[in-house]
Amino acid sequence: MTDAPAFFELSSAEATALLCERQKYLVLFHVHPDGDAVGSAFALANMIKATGREAYCVCADEVPERLHFASKDLQESVLASSIPEDFVPDAIVSVDTASPSQLGELYEIYKDKIDLMIDHHGKGTYYANYFVSPTSSACGEVLYGLLEGVAARFEIELPLRVRELIYTAISADTGCFRYNNATPRAHKIAADMLECGVDTSDINHKLFGIKTLKQMQVEHAGFERMNFYADGRIAVITFPYSLKEQYGATDENLETLIDVARSVKGVEVAAVIKQFSPENKFRVSMRSSSDFDVSEICAHYGGGGHARAAGCTMSCDSILTAEMAIISVVEMKFAENEI
Ligand SMILES: [Mn+2]
To answer: Separation of 199 CA from ligand 1 center, angstroms?
Structure first.
């Protein structure tokens, strides 16, 4: 029998110390990277560099094109194969990653070697020796506190670039401060960033104001496939692989489909079921615009997330089966809530 591994929660001061003491940092972030993951990882890497040390960011997936503005000035690629072979980290830190499965193939490479997990979900499956994971709007919010501590220790100002990336992370995860996770603290940090000269309107335009033509074509196709259930309280878009091929769409092009479903008036629970490859594996994204907790639905299928935004992957014989399975659980919950 082996002892179960122990995971220790660190205070902010202890986590800050860990970010000050080492020389070479490897920063891991989750697959299907979003603005919070990329913004947080590159904010940390930029800060390490600003204090005269070395850092590389690594992910199992490349940074999507729409987020290149946050990563390309530091790294052309984030794949593990792109990191110089002679770079041997003395600290491995993950950001915005609540469970080992979200590290994808990186977990096999780095498991047991991850020193610190910096997250904001307040729950998850711990996999690093040490963790900090208060419930916050974004990993960027947690990191802001830690990096202010690092800046103080090295007696420097927090660089503008780091501030831009922290803002990017928080704005991305709060949907431009529209979601209910946009806490007073998130707004206060945004105010700090504005005062320090961060061009927030430019960042928000890049995050939310631009869509590629392909993305809009995909949204149009998704709109035509949208099904409504429970008197319009549930909207589901399925996007099978055949359609993805027909449009020549990338996984990234399908990211905003969920916004189409959730924007319809009266919809409380929105779901998008995407088939990324010919395999019968379906990636489910869910959003709630009421008290309905979609993370419970996704947890039922081995996934997770927040009450209002969650996801899971289902293996079943068809996309229709996946749709029916999701609908039946949501309808069951609706019925339970009404009792
Ligand atoms: Mn996040």
So the answer is: 21
